[in-house]
Write a structure and sequence with these properties.
Layout (H helix, E strand, L loop, with lengths): L4 E6 L5 H15 L3 E6 L13 E7 L7 H8 L8 E8 L7 H10 L3 E9 L11 H24 L9 H11 L1 H11 L2 E3 L9 H5 L5 E4 L1 E4 L8 H5 L5 E3 L12 H5 L2
Parallel strand pairs: 1-2, 1-3, 3-4, 4-5
Antiparallel strand pairs: 6-9, 7-8
Helix pairs in contact: 1-4
Bound molecules: flavin mononucleotide.
Flavin mononucleotide (FMN) binds next to helix 1 and strand 4.
Amino acid sequence: MSIKTIDFYFFSGSGNTYLVVKEMADLFKEEGMEVNLFRIENVNPEDFDSSHTIGIGFPVAAQSTYKFIWDFFEKLPDAQGTEIFMVDTLAQISGGLVGPMKKLLQKRGYKTIGSKEIKMPGNWFPGEINETKNKELISGGLKEAREYAKSLIDGQAEWKSQSFFSDLICSVSRSGFAWNFFAKMGKKFQVDRDKCKQCNICIKLCPIGNIEMNDYPEFLGKCQQCMRCISLCPTEAIYMKGKNSDIYRAVKAGELLKI
Ligand SMILES: Cc1cc2nc3c(=O)[nH]c(=O)nc-3n(C[C@H](O)[C@H](O)[C@H](O)COP(=O)(O)O)c2cc1C
């Protein structure tokens, strides 16, 4: 990388992507670079500083990523060769979203210097959680994150193009179908009034303003299932009716909210 200041924009539902982004940021800092972390939901993409190298990090969802994340990248200002790299985290497979993301960014004038997909524990109603397996996955994922960051510094990272099928999968994923399905499921989110402390943290956490406080939290019907409210509620008061599952979280709400 030629530029020494990195603005790293990320979204993380249950904390996996945050851990990966933090690991990479720590390595960049050890190598003398300045790194600024931003939560995507707090940023106007038009305020991007094109004199800095840009990092982007987000989870895979429905074989691509969340609609609000695509919407964010669609609004990026045009650039003239600003370097950009991406990392995503996933539980299994992504449908090759790095290909369509590369096209979008190149069309806007960004220089795509590296992409990486890193396996981490699944966070979508994982059922009974195996803590030992999850710890192994996280430590493997963080090792990959450091190696990827080193390859970016050395100029060895790549952003491969994907097949025609990745464009197809991505366009299906970005269509209304998946998001209407998730919104429908989100209507089954419930609050356990014995556990809820009416602390408003779920409202601060929701990236799309889908939760309103009316004595107790209420869901407005546009949920994209990022899992933040369920994963990070400090008292585990939010659940989905009919889904019996342990709750997965890689960090606590306070750590994410302080960024
Ligand atoms: C609604 C939803 C859809 C998901 N879809 C996929 C998927 O298509 N492929 C996959 O490998 N993982 C999928 N996952 C798993 C997440 O990508 C994975 O656990 C990720 O590391 C979560 O990162 P986060 O904690 O930063 O949100 C999905 C998770 C959710 C909540």
